[in-house]
Write the structure tokens for this entry.
Amino acid sequence: MSRRSVLAILTLLLTAGGILWTQTTRPLSPTTIPSAPPTCEPKITWSGQAILPPGTNPDQRLIATLFPGTSSTTSVAFRSTCPLANVGVEITPSLNGLVVISPNSFASIVPNQDYHLSLTFTAPPEFVRRAFGGTIHIRNNGIPSKTYSLPLEIALRADWSVFIPSSEKYSINYPATDVSVFELQPGTVLFRPQEGDSLLEVPYIFISMKPNPAGKNIFDFYKDPDQPDLLAQSGGNYTTGTVNGALYYIFNPTMSEAGMMVVVVPRPGYFLELDVSGASSETPSGVFGAMLSSLMVE
């Protein structure tokens, strides 16, 4: 092979190798790595009859007045901006014994959908004006646990009004936010539920003072022709109790409308009679039971 041929072959090999090296060492074009989807940060909003609207109170607050010794129920709803799982509904310890929530857990939450809760408030029996506060919050029950914003602030207060008739023979407390009062004549008064929505179940209560100038005992007095024979109408049955040192009798007339209860408090010179229509039991309970526990007679 001639020297010229050898040089030609070497030149060809060098040229091919340079092309191959250029192709294998050329920098790669940058690769676009897809970014992770943004994390959804849940926000909880609340709604309900007893909740102040957000424009009035951006922090979402439920305000309720409690009548001592009674329970009342309201409903609220919450919704989340994000899907949630294994969700718990909790109250702060300051509301223990005052608020019960049902239900208190959800397996899953769909975004922007209302989930309803029933809240039962129970006021301490003592007639002491006081305030209670705390929050209800939505949290993840898993590990690690997490509380979602915003909580629902709860502001409760025990309060009442006192009715004293013009005769000033007695006084009795009543829930002013739920009851209307009408004094029909001295010593005779009607308590009735206020119109509109109320958290309490309020019966009709009619209180009257019946003169007893002859000083008859309760059974002889109610046998008079112008008085109902409460003992006979109650099948000969009655129960007794005391309130603030005063003895009272309870009759449940079977001849009257269902839920009728008559409580009679004998006093010197008169009988104080409390007629209850729509009573929930045969013994004083609920709103009437709480009112009766506050009765003071001279």
